[in-house]
Amino acid sequence: MLLDELCTLLSRHAREDGATAIEDLLVGREESDVTPPPSMARTRMTLITQGAKRLAHGEQVFDYRAGQYLVTSIAMPLTCRFTDATPQRPVLGLCLLLQASEVAELLLQAPPSTLRDRDHTAPPTIAVSTASDELLDATVRLVRLLDQPRDLDVLAPLVKREILWRLITGEHGATVRQIGLADPRLSPIAQAVQWIRQHYREPFQVEDLAELVGMSPSAFYRNFRSITHTTPVQYQKRIRLHEARLLLAANPKDIANIGYLVGYDSPSQFSREYRRLFGAPPSQDPVGFASRDTVE
């Protein structure tokens, strides 16, 4: 099982200071039910693989055990206690520090429909959840790299990115997404992205969008590309086409009208750009096949 393999790996790599060869990854092992001194916790994900841990913030108490993880979205003073820990069966866990810049980058690259919150209330700053199989699998692959130094520098950043994506799209993704707001680059670019998402049908000039968020056109363009890895216009196209694909799944016979609804005046341009992104024109995209079968 994944948790069993994680326990074996963590036992082998646990050090007194918790440090590992992978940046932002800490490994912990505790053999007694001790209460460490209070500390200022950073934004992080802590996964318990054996035993249990109790964390307190003010009057709030959070208990989590093997197979569960805790995320914190802001730095805050915390106290904790390990439970069910013995030399024969120590508490084992890992901590992945979550960087605002990396969260911000993923947020701005995500398709618009991926990160819609069903609950519109403010997310908690601390949350506990059960780790999904996908999250555990990615975490195992990350810790395995401690035994593969040749691959570590290249693959560790990729697997860390996958873990962060699993957290962002998981049960308490809204809590993790709050971390990205601390990135100073995110505020104006996030404002621009939000404007594009809300007005994706409308043409715009990059200069006008830069003025809207209070940046020079050159600085805006440079920062937008560095965070989203695309241009504002290409980002708008991606939003349009993802929205078109969602509409196509529900209305597979309405291709021409769907193109118009998402902002395309030219059906041929819509079909051409749709094919470039998804590998097939709207009329042949498998996303609509199941719906076509039900209506034809």
Describe this protein's structure.
- The chain is of the alpha+beta class and 296 residues long.
- The protein has three domains: 2-178, Jelly Rolls (Sandwich), CATH 2.60.120; 184-229; 234-295, Orthogonal Bundle (Arc Repressor Mutant, subunit A), CATH 1.10.10.
- The protein has helices at residues 2-13, 100-109, 133-144, 149-168, 173-177, 186-198, 206-212, 217-228, 232-250, 255-261, 267-278, 289-295; strands at 25-30, 39-41, 44-50, 52-57, 60-65, 68-72, 76-83, 91-97, 126-130.
- It has a five-stranded antiparallel beta sheet. The protein has a four-stranded antiparallel beta sheet with strand order 2-7-4-5, with no helix packed on it.
- The protein is elongated and about 70 Å long.
- The chain starts with a helix and ends with a helix.
- The model is unreliable at 289-296 (pLDDT under 50).
pLDDT averaged over residues: 86
Sheet of most strands:
5 strands, antiparallel
Helix and strand sequence: HEEEEEEEEHEHHHHHHHHHH
What is the count of DSSP helices, taking H or I runs of 4+ residues? 12
Percent helix = 40-55%
The CATH superfamily of the largest domain appears as Jelly Rolls
Q: What's the CATH class label of the largest domain? A: Mainly Beta
Low-pLDDT stretches: 289-296
Overall CATH architecture of the largest domain: Sandwich
What shape does the CA trace take?
elongated
Class derived from helix and strand content: alpha+beta
Distance between the termini: 46 Å
How much β-strand is present in the residues?
Answer: 15-25%
Give the strand line-up of the largest sheet: 1-8-3-6-9
Nearest-angstrom radius of gyration? 23 Å
Structure summary, number of beta strands:
9
CATH topology of the largest domain: Jelly Rolls
How many separate structural domains?
3
GO molecular function: DNA-binding transcription factor activity; sequence-specific DNA binding
Pfam families: AraC_N, HTH_18
InterPro entries: Homeodomain-like_sf, HTH_AraC, HTH_AraC-typ_CS, Tscrpt_reg_HTH_AraC_N
Protein name: AraC-like DNA-binding protein
